[in-house]
Amino acid sequence: MALAKELENLRNFQCSEGKCVLSVYLNTDRANQNQRKGEWKIRLKNGLKRLEEYLIASGDQKQLKVYKKLRRKVEKEIKGNQSQLMKSVVIFASEEQDLWSVHYLQLPVETNFHWENAPVLDQLTKLQQDFPKSAIIMPNRDVIKIIDIDLGEIKGTNIYQFDPESENWRLKEGTASSDRMASSANHVDDYQHRLDENLNRFYKKIASNIEQMYRDRKWQSVYLVGEPEKVKILQGQLRVKIDRSVNKNLKNSDSFKVLEQVFQ
After folding, report:
1. What is the C-alpha separation between 256 and 237, in angstroms, rounded?
2. How many angstroms from the chain centroid is the CA of residue 154?
3. Would you give the DSSP letter of residue 98?
4. What is the DSSP string of 159-190?
5. Nearest Cα to Cα of residue 22 among 35, 54, 152, 3
6. Residue 46 pLDDT
């Protein structure tokens, strides 16, 4: 589900009786000097423990029972996905309507834990305002990778492979596209030379596709990542505003590493 739509659904969520929603904002940014030794684990444990102590003091056994179940689920989710942790994780959980909304973000949040009658959305709403829908476009010789981002979260990736026979760009998806990216580096020198000499013309053909995606996906920010020459050539062909260029060859980096470079 698109994050904007999910936020709308979360805003409309309300407990039928009392408090029933656990909202978790956890900063896991290793770039933060206070996080380099995994201090987020202590903050997670202490934050959830404080909420439990609050419920014990309230004497509401029904809410306490529900909370303990949700707490275990949240702890299992985060600890079981430590390899996916980027700069933050945001979770909304409730037994009502089986609410379970998890987001691993490349944007930092302030660590906070809430037990309320509705999801606490202040930080997520602010992030959506500050970091709207955007795209990272990575031009290479015969491959262009486009990462679709919403609120610092990867929503999808498209890879276009240049077909030398038709001189058109073909969309590849899934694992096959990644494999093709790796194999493209093995093309013979004369083919690479031909591509280099005709990049302006070949990039012009893909520019219209990117401009259409810009309109359809309602990107509000666009970033270019790649070798300076290729970034400059593609930017010259695009009729969209480029918010920032990162002049680094990251074609062999995974998408999460690319996000780190763009949003650092």
Report:
1. 27
2. 3
3. G
4. EEEEETTTTEEEEE-HHHHHHHHHHHTTS-HH
5. 54
6. 97
For 48-103, the pLDDT digits (tens) are 999 999 999 999 999 999 999 999 999 999 999 988 788 899 999 999 999 999 99
Reference 192, options 143, 234, 231, 142; nearest CA is 142
Q: Alpha-carbon distance 260 to 264, whole Å?
A: 5
The pair of three-digit structure tokens given for residue 210, joined into one six-digit string:
């990117």
Q: At residue 67, what is the residue type?
A: Y
Q: How confident is the model at residue 183 (pLDDT cuts 50, 70, 90)?
A: very low
Q: Which residue in 238, 236, 264 sits closest to 250, CA to CA? A: 264
Q: What is the pLDDT of residue 179?
A: 38
Tokens at 223, concatenated: 């970033």
Task: Identify residue 63 by its one-letter amino acid code.
Answer: Q
Nearest to 169 by CA among 122, 136, 110, 209: 209
Domains along the chain with CATH numbers: 3-129 (3.30.960.10), 131-263 (3.30.420.60)
CA gap 228, 246 in Å, rounded? 8
Beta carbons of 104 and 84 less than 8 angstroms apart: yes
